[in-house]
UniProtKB/TrEMBL annotation:
Highest taxon listed in the record's lineage: Bacteria
Gene3D superfamilies associated with the record: 1.20.1260.10
Protein name (database record): DUF305 domain-containing protein
Pfam families hit by this protein: DUF305
PANTHER family recorded: SLL0788 PROTEIN
Length: 143
């Protein structure tokens, strides 16, 4: 129950932040919002995407696990930008890679096909190594 409450909170937060960002964008990026209603269309798309990620009672166990991994990744990718592209790249890729690891673990748990399981394990191994490299770079560069 706590997981669902957390996911719902994250969905509401992202939806609210999207609306605020779109409202701000309408003033500062009018060339990107040339089509009337483009901001509200984008917000509606974001709301639908977040709603689709919410576990539903009829979802298969694997689907529930994938949705939980998706929501965690979306939440964890909300990292402040520093203006330093070297830092920003790594700080945003780390939760992205962790999301891939979490999804691969779902595949290992639920998949039947040996090739899927083999690919999932390779993703875990590769992404964990890359996360460690990015964390080392951040540590060694005073970030």
């Amino acid at each position: 129950m706590t997981t669902i409450r957390t996911l719902m909170s994250a969905a509401l937060l992202v939806t609210g932040l999207t609306g605020a960002a779109l409202a701000q964008s309408a003033h500062s990026h009018s060339d990107h919002m040339a089509k009337p209603g483009a901001g509200s269309d984008m917000q509606a798309d974001m709301q639908k995407m977040m709603a689709d990620m919410m576990p539903k009672p009829g979802d298969a166990p694997s689907t529930k696990d994938f949705k939980q991994a998706d929501m965690a990744m979306m939440h964890n990718m909300h990292v402040a930008y520093t203006g330093n592209p070297d830092v920003d790249f790594r700080t945003h890729m780390i939760p992205h890679h962790q999301g891939a690891i979490d999804m691969a673990k779902v595949a290992l748990k639920h998949a039947k096909d040996p090739a899927t399981k083999q690919m999932a394990q390779k993703i875990i191994d590769d992404q964990e190594k890359e996360i460690a490299e990015m964390q080392d770079w951040l540590k060694n560069n005073g970030k």
